Input
Amino acid sequence: MAMEFRPPKPMLLMIYVAIFSVFAASAKGGRTNYPIFIFGDSTMDVGTNNLVDNCSARADHPYYGIDYPGHQATGRFSNGLNTADTIVQLLGGYERSPLPYLALVEGGSNFTRGILNGVNFASGGAGLVKGVGLSLYGQVVSMEEQVQQFATVRGNISALLGGSKGERFLRKSMYIFSIGSNDIMEYMIFTKPMTPEQFVINITDTYAIHLKNLYSMGARKFGIISIPPLGCCPIARGFAGGNCANDTNTLSRACHDSFEVMLENMSSTLKGFKYSIANTYNMTMTIITSKFGFKDVVSACCAEKTPQGQGDCKEGVPLCEKRDDYLFWDVFHPSQKASQLAASTLVSSQDPNFISPINFGSLRKA
Output
């Protein structure tokens, strides 16, 4: 007796198609490796905070996105594409960053297909330490919560692919981080509860906890973008008489050095742990010193004039005509051109002053 053919249910069919598309892309070379998962703050946020209630750290209004396709303000803290977008473009297999976790959750039926192509968890205003950002911006998605969100993603991937295939999928994927700037900014703004040395130890230990939690869930390839010279961003210059704030920069540099030691230790104690750390401090200071085609490396392209210097970027405030001439888009964030230059360095540079022990491109293929 012939068996009756029963077509798969629509949801199962979508899952099969999603799984096949991911592995087919890898086989054909459309993707140089497995997906990318992104964690961090506003430098990597591609719309998370649009979906967070009571959050004032938002970029879903003009002039943000003025150079984005369709001139759309998507929630990226940039005039166009941001650091997350430009990195994954160069790493291959992406036109722009994976979708935000909260957008995938809101999308419902697209969640399964989306997580197999990577997820962006980054939230503007977030810090390594839980609670950072709350006093300044209201609700944000902390690094701890981003890791918890990944745990949900991991559970779904394991259920979809099965235990061994799911583990391999997560081991081969890449994990990119850009966070810690908000921890420093809050430490410098508010009453300091500890010495600078204690502060660096505290956030380094907290960072290590987050990375170890992700490692325990299968992550193996960690791309770390360390903290830039925050004392040279336009908002900090405004409070330092137009010069870079040296105490803030000293803290940024100390954090990079501490993160580097932490990663070296983790790679020697955790089996299969691979990493690349970008010295964003050196990268940014090199641009400020040599300009690299930028005509203005001091002020923001989009900023309200304030007694302190420059403030928020919003519709109606002074806006530069040639955005590619500016290192800074607003008082905190790089322009699209600056993000593209940084991404090129992260992915391809062999200079140990900027990236070590390998670049992001080599880490992706490892």
